[in-house]
Amino acid sequence: MDIQFLGTGAGQPSKARNVSSLALKLLDEINEVWLFDCGEGTQNRILETTIRPRKVSKIFITHLHGDHIFGLPGFLSSRAFQANEEQTDLDIYGPQGIKSFVLTSLRVSGSRLPYRIHFHEFDQDSLGKILETDKFTVYAEELDHTIFCVGYRVMQKDLEGTLDAEKLKAAGVPFGPLFGKIKNGQDVVLEDGTEIKAADYISAPRPGKIITILGDTRKTNASVRLAVNADVLVHESTYGKGDEKIARNHGHSTNMQAAQVAAEASAKRLLLNHISARFLSKDISQLKKDAASIFENVHVVKDLEEVEI
Ligand SMILES: [Zn+2]
């Protein structure tokens, strides 16, 4: 499981940073890629990665500001031009209005897609669990921005324990149907009378990962709730230390506030994105250094950077 950042800038694109989008690559888990936000130019960034647009099965939108959604019509249209590839449906989750934005853009531009889009719109009253599959559950909660904006908590379900085949062989269990029974948790008795307890040969289930991806927000308790015990928290850092007042006025956070959220939530790792173009590279190291005084495991991400979870 990896996160690849496609755009890490705030508000408008700069040479170094495109506007918001990131890909949660779940290729080993479910052979899918989930996009979070899709700012203008996201499809160009995708061209610089190994991500195949057809693998993008779900898109989660945090809010309707242009720097988070203007890339949708272009990406959706290009996704249709995957020569010789099967056309697969796509789900879009986001605030009410996203459906109208996408359908209007496609209609007035005469764009027809050869695949179906299923829209899942929500508002303040319909948040909470927005998706559950056999392997993942996704929750959304409202943040505190200048328009309705949410954060997402992606929870992988616990992974089943694995069978220790070497240990079974050593115990004299012949390879074959007995392995299957033991894997299903069934105790068995061998021909020589040896009792094999399944639990002794199956490793404990591993806890699933928790990934928290927030939209633009002031510091709010909702962020902490979404990030509790997260393996990774992706948090905006539009402003730096000392800019708390201006951050509040503009509906954003500073690096210090993001670090406070990570600490309060006992997250394991904090990745800062939504970085203003006014920050030069020396400012970026300062952003990290200042945030690390509150939460040590912090990193300011770059466009195209890939982070393993
Ligand atoms: Zn915004």
| Distance N to C terminus | 6 Å
Radius of gyration, CA atoms, in whole angstroms: 22 Å
How many helix segments? 11
Helix-residue proportion: 25-40%
Instruction: Characterize the overall form.
Output: globular
- Compressed to H and E, one letter per element, the order equals EEHEHEHHEHEEEEHHEEEHEHHEHEE
Strand order of the largest sheet: 6-5-4-3-2-1-16
In what range is the share of β-strand residues? 15-25%
Q: Indicate the mean pLDDT.
A: 94
Give me the count of strands. Answer: 16
Largest sheet, if any? 7 strands, mixed
Output the structural class. alpha/beta
Q: Which stretches of 5+ consecutive residues score pLDDT under 50?
A: none
| Bound compounds | zinc ion
Description:
27% of the residues lie in helices and 25% in strands. By secondary structure, the chain is an alpha/beta fold. The radius of gyration is 22 Å and the shape is globular. The structure holds zinc ion. Zinc ion binds at residues 63, 65, 145, 216.
How is the topology of this model organized?
Layout: E1 2-7, E2 21-26, H1 27-30, E3 32-36, H2 42-47, E4 56-60, H3 66-69, H4 72-79, E5 90-95, H5 98-108, E6 117-122, E7 128-132, E8 136-142, E9 150-156, H6 165-170, H7 177-183, E10 188-189, E11 195-196, E12 210-214, H8 221-227, E13 232-236, H9 244-250, H10 255-264, E14 270-273, H11 281-292, E15 298-300, E16 306-308
Parallel strand pairs: 3-4, 4-5, 5-6, 12-13, 13-14, 14-15
Antiparallel strand pairs: 1-2, 1-16, 2-3, 7-8, 8-9, 9-12, 10-11
Helix pairs in contact: 10-11
